[in-house]
Amino acid sequence: MADEDPAAKATLAATSWAILAILSPERELSGYDVKKVTEWSIRYFYWSPQFSQIYAELKKLEKLGLVTSRMDHDNGARNRRLYKITAAGLEAVTRWANDTPAEPPMLKHSVLLRVAFGNLAGPEKLKDLLQEHVEFAEDMLRQATHDAQVAETVDAWAYSRLALQWASRYYASERELALQMMKDLDEAEEAFGRSGGPGSAPAPRYWDEIGEKVNVEGKQA
Amino acid sequence: MADEDPAAKATLAATSWAILAILSPERELSGYDVKKVTEWSIRYFYWSPQFSQIYAELKKLEKLGLVTSRMDHDNGARNRRLYKITAAGLEAVTRWANDTPAEPPMLKHSVLLRVAFGNLAGPEKLKDLLQEHVEFAEDMLRQATHDAQVAETVDAWAYSRLALQWASRYYASERELALQMMKDLDEAEEAFGRSGGPGSAPAPRYWDEIGEKVNVEGKQA
DNA sequence: GTGCTCATGTAAGGCGTTACATGATTAT
DNA sequence: ATAATCATGTAACGCCTTACATGAGCAC
A22-26, B40-44, B136-140, B201-205: which has the minimum mean pLDDT? Predict the structure, then answer.
């Protein structure tokens, strides 16, 4: 409990802000609780950090004076450390929410990566992967829809509900896009027949032309 | 030239595989070239690593015997190091493509994170962020569509084309989802009027109920 | 009493970024 | 001549994960 360095407020990573935001209703939470909250909602659109990271982040936030902590013995109870946001923390996280531009979303879609390098595996393998992805999307869709319904029961969760509804639609779309890709693969297979289309040829030498074709034309940042 | 450790093949990270896959058409590429390829297609669905990381990855791949390199003087030319995949590398990346299950896609959507913590900022601020996101999605949509058209001109890019078409649809959907969210926010505002709905209340104490409401019901992994 | 979940961490290391440095070529 | 781009890196650091360790309560 000490630093209060105002410069640090600006340089926290999004994960730290997320944890601080979870603590922003002025309620005491343990690291375990924080993890549960991320699992409940945030994981659908912003992954979910590991326990070890959450504990480390909480310590960091405490050193910055944005949260305080105390040990809990009353409760049951195993030993657990409870964290609570400070006035400085509340002010910092509010400034973050109001004054910081959002970073561009970042996506690492392994399935699409496989598709892009489909010549290494062939369309059948890709369709297997896509089928699995469809099931994954359906699973997430179901869970997000359920959690969104839970969020309807409490007024204070209104924004979480909106985010979870977005997630429902997102995973529904993810499902459709995968199904569409499977169709596209079928069509491509038919078009190429068993001649040297996608999947059979070693697909050599394409970068020659990339420079000329790509660089000039599009791309206004 | 050296290690050839077969165990290592299984434990490379997706980024390494992506770079190796880029080199899989047996063509000599510099680190700079690799970066350009990622910028051309992969960035739409799997971000784009920094130069420094690409150079580091290439060195690592070389130490593993999956690529070889030589200096290029002929070409123009500044000094540049050209990398080429080895037989071992080709075999390893093919095995990766065929035998490794795809990891679940990972998304870090800062805009949705803001929505989920909307009580810290209010609906007007959120709508600004969403409007910016709409423009971002439109920009990506335009670029992906352009690059997909470029990919149509070369047979060997068939899979890249499919991936880029997917990206077009993805960013179109991203746009729609953001617009829908803006509508939802408007409706929520109207419903709550200027009474203590989203945006005004400090939204206290919600985690009490999370344990009871959430844990039991849904969630089959 | 055995195993499961709750709960809190430490240690090691890989992934990935930012910042910096350098020099050569190309464009103006 | 000057600036911009091409091209290749190094250094430092922060983010994040995996693996491991520990102990306490609870279910059977």
Answer: B201-205
The whole-angstrom distance between residue A109's C-alpha and the CA centroid of its chain comes to 11
A118 pLDDT higher than 70: yes
pLDDT by residue (tens digit) across B11-32? 899 999 999 999 999 889 999 9
Cα A149 → chain centroid? 20
pTM, full prediction: 0.89
CB contacts, 8 Å: B147 with chain A: 214, 218
Could you give phi then psi for residue B103, rounded to 5 degrees? -70, 155
Q: Could you tell me which residue, B138 or A205, shows the higher pLDDT?
A: B138
- In this complex, do B159 and A25 lie within 8 Å of one another by their Cβ atoms? no
Chain B: closest CA distance from residue A212 (Å): 11
CA distance A63 to chain B (A): 23
Tokens 């200096």 sit at which residue? B71
CB environment A182-209: b (16+ within 10 A), e (fewer): bebbeebbeebeeeebbbeeebeebbee
CA distance A125 to A123: 6
CA B2 to CA B14: how far, in whole Å?
22
Whether chain B has a CB inside 8 Å of the CB on A19: the answer is no
Please name the member of B146, B188, B209 whose beta carbon is closest to the beta carbon of A218.
Answer: B146
How far away is chain A from the Cα of B69, in angstroms, using its nearest Cα? 17
User: In this model, does residue A78 exceed pLDDT 70?
Assistant: no
Tokens for B214, please give them: 């959430």
User: Confidence band (pLDDT; 50, 70, 90) for B77?
Assistant: low
Q: Please give the nucleotide, over all strands, whose C1' is closest to the CA of residue B12.
A: C14
CB contacts < 8 Å between A and B, how many? 283
Nucleotide nearest to B52 (CA to C1'): D9
Does any CB of chain A come closer than 8 Å to the CB of residue B71?
no
CA-CA-CA-CA dihedral for A203, A209, A214, A215, to nearest 10: 140
CA of B145 to C1' of D12 (A): 39
Question: In Å, what is the separation between the CA of A52 and the C1' of C10?
Answer: 9
